TrEMBL record:
Recorded superkingdom: Bacteria
Protein name according to UniProt: ParA family protein
Pfam family of the protein (one): AAA_31
Domain AAA: 3-169
InterPro entries: AAA_dom, DNA_Partitioning_ATPase, P-loop_NTPase
Length: 263
């Protein structure tokens, strides 16, 4: 099972949009996909709530009553699989603490799920903050994908994410693999080019070539309870996420699942 955490410290950078549409691009290549909504605001869950999700089967039950992740998976009409979230996830820190046992719990749950669902790629839509919820996804991940919208404040947020990931590495005893993807890009705006230049100066080849541009289809599809390929598979937004899928295939081939820290 490949596990990808989509995470940024800053909200409104397109994390949920990227989680859903990248997963959909994955599925279009005949891959099995599992979505984990790890945001107490449950934006990903809200996209599909109208189709009759069982809201008693949500991720917090995995922590609260040790319900296996496999029992929380719900199939969506488009073939994706979802473990929903609800606001109780906000209480994870206060109820279970911030120690290693809590941070590692999701990783252990996914390892158990891997025994029966090894063919899945798991996409974890993280809470926009550096806390137990998001860091547990980082602990469990093979790759952290950081969406960065093309504005100057997002650069500062990306630096905070980088520091947080670096701080975790001594605990994990491995390099946290990460890639940055520029979102909400507008090639007509000078700021887009300036943000990309600064991101590449700071993070080098960890900034992906693919950019996700602002497109009407991406704004509309979520409102319609669809991913972009359902809404308009020929749209520029769909092409962007398909390009992101193919670029990540090369990244995944080149990166070991666990890179030890240098001595």
């Amino acid at each position: 099972m490949l596990k990808i955490a989509i995470f940024n410290h800053k909200a409104d950078v397109g994390s949920t949009t990227t989680t859903l549409n990248l997963a959909a691009a994955w599925q279009r290549q005949r891959r099995q996909v599992l979505l984990l909504d790890m945001d107490p605001q449950a934006r990903l869950t809200e996209t599909y709530k109208h189709i009759g999700l069982d809201m008693q089967k949500h991720l917090f039950r995995f922590y609260q009553s040790a319900t296996p992740l496999a029992d929380l998976i719900q199939p969506l009409r488009n073939g994706l699989q979802l473990i929903p979230a609800n606001k109780e996830l906000m209480n994870l820190d206060s109820q279970f603490g911030r120690g290693p046992a809590t941070l590692k719990r999701l990783s252990e749950g996914l390892a158990q799920l891997n025994k029966t669902h090894a063919e899945y790629t798991a996409f974890m839509d993280c809470f926009s903050g550096i806390g137990v919820i998001s860091l547990s996804a980082v602990f469990a991940s093979d790759l952290v994908l950081v969406p960065v919208s093309t504005d100057y404040l997002s650069i500062h947020s990306a630096v905070k994410v980088e520091k947080a990931l670096n701080a975790l590495e001594p605990v994990l005893k491995r390099r946290v693999q990460r890639r940055y993807v520029l979102t909400r890009a507008d090639k007509r705006k000078e700021m887009t080019a300036e943000v990309e230049q600064e991101m590449r100066r700071l993070f080098g080849q960890e900034v992906l070539v693919t950019r996700i541009s602002e497109h009407a289809a991406l704004a509309e599809c979520g409102r319609m309870g669809q991913h972009v390929f359902e809404y308009d598979a020929n749209s520029p937004g769909a092409r962007d996420y398909l390009a992101l899928y193919f670029e990540l295939q090369d990244v995944i081939k080149q990166l070991p699942r666990a890179t030890p820290l240098a001595a």
